Hints:
Elements: E1 7-17, E2 23-34, E3 39-43, H1 50-57, E4 65-70, E5 73-74, H2 79-85, E6 86-89, H3 101-111, H4 116-129, H5 145-157, E7 163-167, H6 175-190, E8 194-198, H7 202-205, E9 211-216, E10 219-224, H8 226-233, H9 241-250
Parallel strand pairs: 3-8, 3-9, 6-7, 7-8
Antiparallel strand pairs: 1-2, 1-4, 4-5, 9-10
Helix pairs in contact: 3-4, 8-9
Amino acid sequence: xxxxxxxxxxxxxxxxxxxxxxxxxxxxxxxxxxxxxxxxxxxxxxxxxxxxxxxxxxxxxxxxxxxxxxxxxxxxxxxxxxxxxxxxxxxxxxxxxxxxxxxxxxxxxxxxxxxxxxxxxxxxxxxxxxxxxxxxxxxxxxxxxxxxxxxxxxxxxxxxxxxxxxxxxxxxxxxxxxxxxxxxxxxxxxxxxxxxxxxxxxxxxxxxxxxxxxxxxxxxxxxxxxxxxxxxxxxxxxxxxxxxxxxxxxxxxxxxxx
Length: 258
């Protein structure tokens, strides 16, 4: 029997009121799930609804309708339970320039109720885990983009959540930094964490994610494994995940991909 999803979205809808009085349908009936020990890539062009979906899961936005659950906690009925069970990394690191990684981890550990030796040991473990010990006392404003992204990830992991949601985690990283971060995420998946990440850089995650969900215009237009998407959308032709992605959204943006 498969474990219950650690992340589950069912018919999620998020509408905004536009300045002209109309309605913007940012997310319009999205359903997806991520089980423990699984990494799922959320793919879509700008404005597809990826970030809105992730922000709803992180309890930063309230859904218009539908359901979003993290470790069984509903984002509307039990947002505190969701936050205790989820680590969220936004598209921008949001790391304070004047604080060091050690100070940031220690502050967030305290917010999650850790004190004394427990907090110290937990912070030291994170510094080692994320290879930040050598720069752990350096102000974040003096860190490289890759180091700052690792600090952001460590901040999201302070409370050891079973689920992680990451919005464009490699966006500011070079090739080496992106490779190292994704390798680290693969290790977390192997530990049994559920990981949902969005990205525009399909080639980076093509061979790392277990499944993919493609959304366009706020709706899921395709989902499945890499092989399933390529086989289902390329009509038996050889190709890459990017080719299947454009085939899935092609007829919705004015022309079928070839």
